[in-house]
Amino acid sequence: MSTHIGAKKGQIADVVLLPGDPLRAAWLAKKFLKAPETVHDVRGMPCYTGFRHCFRALPGQLACTKKLISIQSSGMGMPSLGIYVEELARDFGVKKIIRLGTCGALQEKINLRDIIIAMGACSDSASNIHRFGPAMSFAPIADPALYRDAVLQAEDRGLPFHTGNVFATDDFYDHSEPPRWQKFARYGALAVEMETAKLYTLAAYYGIQALSLLVVSDHLAREEKPLTSEERVTCCSDIAMIALSIVA
Ligand code: HPA
To answer: How far is the CA of 188 from the centre of ligand 1 (A)?
Structure first.
């Protein structure tokens, strides 16, 4: 057990899918895991562990193994995600974390429900200033192998996807004039969300693999009606399939 994760050692798989929303975690566990068990529910931020069948072609036969997968919700924003990622990596020995999240599009060419595979993350968070000092900056990037496999999966499945930088902000409601996302959009950032810079930084610190797969749930660069809260729970089906195929 750790401070915020009430599971016992061994109850969390070495691969964790990390949606922000606890309802999305429950929905994903029910839809994609076999025999999912709730291994803790501290603060109503549950973790589910179940398995997936993995099939491998061997000479003359199809071998089937069970791959354990956990799904933990991270909450919203980098401080909350940081707690879960830190404890998963440090206290539970988790080796791969794939965030399944939503984001706001920053470029006109991107459509609602498109997928963003985040190569890297800019941020307005002070977190890495505390970590590295004001004169040094760290470039948080995705694990190259997970990133490559996700791109291949998205291509194979014919899904609409974009790859590039995202902007991880501390403020969902940004009152700056002009809003800070505009500067990052000018430098090519595809979307705004609130978690990936912290995920990639902590993954580098702990030497684990991490990737953010995001679905566009709202648009900042053109007038669009955002997805509803119900749609935001279920819109992650395709990115969940990408994540599961690259880890199982
Ligand atoms: N801003 C910040 N985070 C988000 C957004 C947004 O528009 N959409 C989904 N996550």
So the answer is: 17
Q: Which of 41, 124, 218, 238 is catalytic?
A: 218
Give the pLDDT score at 57.
Answer: 83
**pLDDT of 234:** 82
pLDDT at 130: 94
With a threshold of 0.85, does the pTM exceed it?
Answer: yes
Q: Give nearest CA residue, ligand 1 atom 7.
A: 104
User: Is 218 considered catalytic here?
Assistant: yes
Testing ligand 1's pocket by substitution, the residue of 182, 193, 213 carrying the most ligand atoms inside 8 A of its CB is 193
Average pLDDT, integer, range 16-45: 96
Name residues whose C-beta falls within 8 Å of residue 172's C-beta, 6 or more positions apart in sequence.
Answer: 76, 194
Q: How far, in Å, is the centroid of ligand 1 from the Cα of 242?
A: 21
pLDDT, tens digit (0-9, with 9 covering 90-100), for 146-201: 999 999 999 999 999 999 999 999 999 999 999 999 999 999 999 999 999 999 99
Helical H segments across the chain, by residue range: 22-32, 78-92, 127-132, 144-156, 181-186, 196-206, 229-234, 237-247
* pLDDT tens digit sequence for 121-157: 999 999 999 999 999 999 999 999 999 999 999 999 9
Interatomic CA distance for residues 198 and 166, integer angstroms? 12
116, 169, 172, 174: residue to mutate for ligand 1 pocket, most atoms within 8 A of CB? 172
User: Which residues touch 195 (CB under 8 Å, ≥6 apart)?
Assistant: 20, 74, 76, 77, 78, 81, 99, 101, 168, 212
